[in-house]
Amino acid sequence: MNALEARNVTKQYATHKALDSVSITIPEKTIYGLLGPNGAGKTTLIRIINQIISAEAGSIEIFGEPLQQKHVGIIGYLPEERGLYKKMKVGEQLLYLAQLKGLSRKDALARIKVWLEKFEVKDWWNKKVEDLSKGMAQKVQFISTVMHEPRLIILDEPFSGFDPVNAQLITEKILELKEMGSTIIFSTHRMETVESLCDHIALINKSKKILEGAKKQVKAQYKSNTFTIEHKGTFVVPGRYELVSQSITEDDHYSTVIKAPLGTTGNEVIRNIIELTEVHGFQEKLPTMADIFIGLVKGEGDEALKKHLLEV
Q: Of 46, 205, 260, 282, which is the most exposed, with the fewest CB atoms less than 10 Å away?
């Protein structure tokens, strides 16, 4: 079953079309990266899923059902613009938000206690939000998003305001939530996080979806069939391969990049090269999500992008 299916979702604001017939499919129990530059339409789509605003056209299904009011209770939403009540104490606020999501007072207290222990912040219960640092307040907001154990979690720039230690802590909790069965929509500009966390991605640009798929498949789609070989001694590159670059790493040791014909496997390449030189290292050169993101947002076509990725 898919956690979410959006079909031809369109949203118009006066003369600006925020979403132009966008369709995405999010498999259940995955981490799905919703990517795009500022103003692309990501936040508009997230707000429609959360029923904060309505679409002019299109449809959304949640776990096989048309999106409706009852689904608010199975969604956890962490907006980019955080929204805690600054004068309330942390414990009171978490209790209030948990009950809004349908938890009884008893269940809410039990779950809040567990999450405060996970983040090692049990002594924050009576602290006012306005007395917390930005990072501390972010932790409280994250807890408020996930403590009702939602089946679908939407995180909009969840690492904003966190230092590396706390960013790693949040990463661990996100992976735990996935293991527990939650599906996570992850909207971010941080491509290194996409590389490490996301299973599937969609790229929205100028109100349109321009790319979607499993992360591994997307990277394979844009690979340039280039291989880096670390070796001792020079060799003549066979005619079926193209020499991209070669540099000396130390005395009589080289790093050579070659491009192979389409469909050539790494095993084939190394079988051919190992007969010609003493190979110390071998790796296929795959594009990063940042490379693909930048190239597509700049409007490079598939062939131009593949050429660009060959050069980076």
A: 282
